[in-house]
Amino acid sequence: MGLAEYFGFDDHDTDLRTELVAGLTTFLAMSYIVLVNPVVMTQRTTAGEVVKPGIALANYSHDQTVQMLAVVTLLASGVAMLVMAFYANRPFALAPGLGLNAFFAFTVVGTLGVPWQTALAAVFTEGLLFIVLTAVGAREYVITLFPEPVKLAVGTGIGLYLAIIGLEAMGIVVGDAGTILALGNLAQNPVAVVSILGLFFTIALHARGVTGSIVLGIIATAATGGVLTFAGVVDPGVLIGDFVRTGGIATQRLPHAQYDITPLVGAFLAGFQDIDAFSFALIVFTFFFVDFFDTAGTLVGVGQAGGFLNTDGNLPDADEPLMADAIGTTFGAIIGTSTVTTYIESATGVEEGGRTGMVALVVAVLFFLSLLVVPLAAAIPQYASHIALVVVALLMLANVTAIDWDDITHSIPAGLTIIVMPFTYSIAYGIAAGIVSYPVVKVATGDADEVAIGQWLLAAAFIVYFYVRTSGVLAAAV
Question: Which branch of life, at top level (predicted)?
Answer without folding.
Answer: Archaea
